[in-house]
Design a protein that fits this description.
The chain has a single domain (21-146), classed as Cupredoxins -  blue copper proteins (Immunoglobulin-like), CATH 2.60.40.420. 23% of the residues lie in helices and 29% in strands. The chain has helices spanning 2-16, 120-131, 140-146, and strands at residues 23-32, 35-40, 43-46, 51-55, 64-65, 85-88, 93-98, 108-113. Strand 1 (23-32) and strand 2 (35-40) form a beta hairpin. Helix 2 runs antiparallel to helix 3 (140-146). The chain starts with a helix and ends with a helix. The structure holds copper (II) ion. Copper (II) ion binds at residues 37, 61, 99, 101-102, 107.
Length: 149
């Protein structure tokens, strides 16, 4: 009987625990492990309702959404240089973002929200075309996208 009580109490505890939305951190870095101009982590998989906070760990960077890589046209952001920004993601899909001054150097990142990545193909095509224009890190966009496949 004692064991049944314990099981019941455990079940009640689990059911009473609310599902908390998580807040993830992305650092904006000038260099990390031999990589220049990089977000860390650059590829993030989160749940709908979670938020992401970009930290200005190194000076001179920002985070800005990429209009061609979003499932949620109502959600755009454009942080100031050195601004810590927190964005909450509710709609499932692939979100691309960049550091505006270092976009040409391939300073980009990807956030995948949920499992329904309906815009993955379109985002992949856009990334492949864009990275050809980068001066450095010319394969980074595609390699990040491939981590979601
Ligand atoms: Cu930057």
């Amino acid at each position: 009987m004692e064991i049944m009580k314990k099981i019941l109490l455990t079940i009640m505890f689990v059911m009473a625990t609310p599902v908390m939305a998580a807040d993830h951190t992305v650092e904006m870095l000038s260099s990390s492990n031999g990589e220049m101009m990089v977000f860390k982590p650059a590829v993030l998989k989160i749940a709908p309702g979670d938020s992401v906070t970009w930290k200005a760990t190194n000076p001179g960077h920002n985070t800005a959404s990429i209009a061609e890589m979003t499932p949620d046209t109502g959600l755009e952001w454009n942080g100031k240089i050195n601004e810590e920004l927190k964005i909450t993601f509710t709609k499932e899909g692939v979100y691309g973002y960049k550091c505006t001054p270092h976009y040409i150097l391939g300073m980009i990142g990807i956030i995948a929200v949920g499992d329904n990545l309906a815009n993955l193909g379109a985002s992949s095509d856009f990334a492949a075309a864009e990275e050809k224009k980068f001066a450095t890190n010319k394969e980074r966009f595609t390699s990040y996208i491939n981590q979601l496949k």
